[in-house]
Amino acid sequence: MDLRRPKKGSRAFRPKKRSETQVATMFWLACEEKRVLGFAGYKVGMTTVAYIDQSESPTKGQEIVGAGTVLEVPPIYVYGIRGYNCGTIVGDILTTDEAKLRFLNMNNFHKNYSKLEVANKTHDTNSNMIKKVNKKEITEDKIDDLRILVFTQPNKTFIGKKHPERFELALGGKNVKDKFALAKNLIGKELRVKDVFKSGEIIDVIAITKGKGLQGAVKRFGSNLQRPKATGKRRHVGTLGQWHPTYVLYTVPQAGQTGYHKRTELNKSILKISENIDEINPNGGFPHYGFVKNDFIIIKGSVPGPTKRLVKMRLSVRDNNSYRNIKFTYLSNEPKQ
């Protein structure tokens, strides 16, 4: 055994177990610009794109042909505001659209919202909101951060999903007052991707990868195949560890769950944001997905997860001030079958 060989398997991804939910959580970076910092869509598939390279690479000014991932991004509905103080939830403010709230209760989104009363409605006709039961009053002096509560609308797509996903989106602003003003303007409305991102921006994508079930050490950690003459087996590790300590360490490559893990990919370029579905839908639709029905976004390269998987996007935490002017030259809508 070569003791100088790097250890198999990155420690950054331990433990390798199934994700508890498909709605992945994410870290948000503070932004002074008054805007929504994230969005979400459904993975459609991949296609061929061509664009003029505007980076400082040796191919600057040349036409680049490569792969792009298509995400369908139907509008998301903003149903509430959540206030935080030192990382603790202070309270929520909900929309007065009773049909939307009843829809949330029917899908068991929030048990605390099952007993909303008319007495909780505010008298301010401009706010058009409902205060949450059993929580403190949300004011600017009692909170140090806030986020908007949203849920997706998969019923507007052809993927056949019934239950929407709900999550929080962070807001940018110089102070809580700016964030609160932006949140009040958004509550009870639909938010479209063109209101959040623009073509050429750098974003991060977060999703749950494709599940592969139980796999051996070779596929799970990339261990080398053994010599059949020496061991009689090929796809197993040569040793489970040393004599002392006399137990198997957790770092030893072994069989186990592979895939269905939360993964974050940084600094992905937005190549195109459009609502013209005729320029993206191929004849016969995308394999295992069908046809795009709403706004769509094309991201350079690949993103985690299979088709129809929810993909969350956020403003890049490492390169959030970059903007690259993308000059699109070709978008393939050839049949993918």
List strands and helices in order, with pairings.
Layout: E1 38-52, E2 63-72, E3 76-85, E4 88-95, H1 98-106, E5 129-131, E6 145-151, E7 166-170, H2 176-186, E8 190-191, E9 202-208, E10 213-215, H3 217-221, H4 228-231, E11 256-258, E12 262-274, E13 296-300, E14 310-315, E15 327-331
Report a brief summary of the structure:
The protein is mostly beta strands and 337 residues long. The protein contains four helices and 15 strands.
Mind explaining what this structure looks like?
The protein is mainly β and 337 residues long. It is built from 4 helices and 15 strands. The protein has 2 domains: 38-210 and 262-331, Elongation Factor Tu (Ef-tu), domain 3 (Beta Barrel); 212-258, Irregular (Ribosomal protein L3, domain 3). The chain has helices at 98-106, 176-186, 217-221, 228-231, and strands spanning 38-52, 63-72, 76-85, 88-95, 129-131, 145-151, 166-170, 190-191, 202-208, 213-215, 256-258, 262-274, 296-300, 310-315, 327-331. Strands 1-2-13-12-9-14 form a 6-stranded antiparallel barrel. Strands 3, 4, 5, 6, 7 and 8 form a 6-stranded antiparallel sheet that branches. It has a two-stranded antiparallel ribbon with strand order 10-11. The chain is globular, with a radius of gyration of 24 Å. The relative contact order is 0.25. Mean pLDDT is 85; it is low at 109-135.
